[in-house]
Design goal:
By secondary structure, the chain is of the alpha+beta class. It is about 20% helix and about 40% strand. Strands 6-5-4-3-8-9 form a 6-stranded antiparallel β-sheet. The radius of gyration is 19 Å and the shape is globular.
Length: about 180
């Protein structure tokens, strides 16, 4: 009995320290035949991550959204996946923080890390081809520790200051009509 309680307590503790990103809400709309999903996150990062960025370490954040069709009595169909990978870096010569979308090579500069994290948490939109089959979607964000320099990967595996993960959050698709203009 004590063993089960201890395991449950460790699981709860591990879950508590690994969920630093908080999903506040999700905005959805259909525009020009596309489903637009905009997750709104609160992204508090630890002082260790801030120190690493300020010292020139490139930090990679991954945002994912998956679209599903419900299937009764079986596994749900994954209709589409969308992954956005962003690198955060600091340029000390001009004191600017840069958010780099790896896939599109779009680069945005910010005067402060707080502004950059607010943008990352509130302005990223996932676009899917609208389909009547889609019933719900899941979304998450995490810090990609495998993208860190190899010397930093092992020491930060279990460090709670580096465990930045929102876990998968599920939402029903709730879009009234196409708002294309």
């Amino acid at each position: 009995m004590i063993r089960k309680t201890l395991i449950a307590l460790l699981f709860v503790l591990f879950t508590a320290i690994t969920s630093a990103a908080n999903l506040l809400r999700v905005e959805q709309q259909v525009k020009n035949g596309n489903l637009l999903i905009k997750p709104i996150y609160e992204l508090p990062i630890s002082d260790k991550v801030i120190e690493a960025i300020d010292n020139g370490i490139v930090i990679t954040f991954v945002m994912q959204t998956k679209l599903y069709e419900e299937v009764n009595w079986w596994f749900d169909n994954n209709l589409a996946n969308n992954i956005k990978t962003y690198q955060v870096r600091y340029f000390s010569l001009n004191s600017l923080y840069q958010l780099h979308n790896i896939r599109t090579d779009e680069k945005l500069s910010f005067a402060s890390l707080e502004e950059l994290m607010t943008y990352l948490g509130e302005e990223i939109i996932f676009e899917f081809k609208s389909t009547p089959l889609a019933d719900y979607f899941e979304t998450r964000i995490f810090l990609d520790k495998q993208a860190l320099p190899s010397i930093m990967q092992l020491p930060n595996v279990f460090d709670p200051d580096w465990n930045f993960n929102s876990d998968w959050q599920q939402f029903q698709i709730d879009v009234a009509q196409d708002s294309s203009q």
